[in-house]
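Question:
Write out your own:
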Amino acid sequence: MVRHYLDEIDRWKSIITAFDTRASALLVERESDLANLATIPGRLAAEIVIAETDGDMTRFASARRLASWIGVCPGRNESAGVNRSGRTRPGNKNLKRLLGIAAMVAIRKKDSYLGVFFRRLAARRGGKRAMVAVMHKLAIAIWHVLHDKAPYRDENSAPTTSHAAIPNAPCAA
C-alpha cells in the first residue's frame, strides 16, 4: 500500500516537472516583459501576471480597464449626494491576491513612493481603502510596463507628505 502511494507521488512529481518545463518554454519569448515587471516595487510574481493577462495589453484599452478587470477599482454608488458602498467589484482573484501581497511588501519601505502614499491615504481614509489604492496603482504600473515595453520608473521616489513642502512653487496648470 505504501509503495502505491510512493509511486503516485513520483507520478505527480513528473507531471509537475513536465508542466514547469512547458511553462518556462512559453515564457522564453517574454523575457523582456519579465525583466521589466521585476522593476515594479513589491515582490510581484511576473510569471503569474503574464499567465493571467497573456502579457498582451492591447486587449485592455487603458490602464483603468486592466485595473477594473482585476477588480481593484473602488465602486462608486452615489445618489442625491450621498455616497454609499465603495466596494470593489469581483475580478480576477489570482491577480487581486497577487497585487494584495505585492502592495503589502511595497508599503513596508518607509521612503518609497507607495509607502508614503499608503501612509498619507491611510491617515485620512483607513488602512484597507489605502491598501486597495496601492493595489490600483500597481495594476496601472503593470499595464504601463507591459504596454510600453519599458521598465518601471519611480519618478517620485520619495514624495513629500505635504503639498506645502515647496513654498512659492509655481502651480502646474
